Amino acid sequence: MRDAMLTVFYSIAIIAWIAFFVVHVIRKNSKSNAAIIDEFVERERSANSARRKDIDETLFFTPNLDALPRGDAESRAYKRVLETSERKMLRFERPVTNTELKLAYGPSQIEDIAWMEENYQEYIRALIYWAEELNENGNKDGALNVLEYALEQGADFKRGYTLAADIYAERGDTWNLKKLTALAEGRTFTDESVKRGVVGYITSLIYKGTEQAQ
Questions:
Q1: Which of 12, 60, 140, 162 places its Cα 20 to 30 Å from the Cα of 133?
Q2: How confident is the model at residue 28 (pLDDT cuts 50, 70, 90)?
Q3: In this prediction, what percent of the chain has a pLDDT beyond 70?
Q4: Which residues pair with 61 in a beta bridge?
Q5: Cα(195)–Cα(199) distance, rounded to whole angstroms?
């Protein structure tokens, strides 16, 4: 009887301790979440009242068409590259939030900044699309030229990396595959899951090439 009562007592004590711990965690998280929300609201308020400032000149991007192969005037993909290259562009080294941009340059410039940054993304997409066309037409040197240029500019589109990796792998070019891996690992992607996928894909090609060479 006494043993049974002790068992019940210990069970109740354990349940009470677990309940206390859960309540403590919930309260702690509630306070943390409230602090995070307050900080966000205050930061957004400051951003919305920030003064207009000139955009950093180093952020403006000017395409270098001389670094690219000569294109076919009849190619729709090449025409797209030429068309997008004439737009005003901004290039950021890492993903930037609207709040950060408003704090840096004022809320009145957000739409213009977003438009110029999207122009840059459109230009990079056009380059990759052109590289795909060149590759499909058998011009692998031209495709690599375009891809390497696009990746040097900070492109974080998965297809740019995987197509370059496929061409290197076809040529058994392990050195450039490793170089491409290092480039991807050192780059800040908008979506880190894309980065992991890119690095994993290139690494698998290197491993496959090493196996075939043995």
A1: 60
A2: low
A3: 75
A4: 89
A5: 6
For residue 93, the model assigns a pLDDT of: 85
Look at strands 89-90 and 60-61 and give their pairing.
antiparallel
Query: Could you read off the pLDDT of 105-130 as tens digits, one per residue?
Result: 888 889 999 999 999 999 999 999 99
Nearest to residue 78, comparing CAs of 149, 127, 148, 141? 127
CA nearest neighbour of 103 among 40, 188, 37? 40
The pTM of the full predicted model, rounded to 2 decimals, is 0.77
Residue 164, burial from CB neighbour count under 10 angstroms (0-12, 13-18, 19+)? buried
Residue reference for tokens 């997008």: 84
Instruction: Name 161's Cβ contacts closer than 8 Å, sequence gap at least 6.
Output: 151, 180, 184, 198, 201, 202
C-alpha gyration radius of the chain: 27
- Quick one: three-class SS letters along the chain? CHHHHHHHHHHHHHHHHHHHHHHHHHHHHHHHHHHHHHHHHHHHHHHHCCCCCCCCHHHEECCCHHHCCCCCCCCHHHHHHHHHHCCCEECCCCCCCHHHHHHHHCHHHHHHHHHHHHHHHHHHHHHHHHHHHHHHCCCHHHHHHHHHHHHHCCCCCHHHHHHHHHHHHHCCCHHHHHHHHHHHHCCCCCCHHHHHHHHHHHHHHHHHHHHHHC
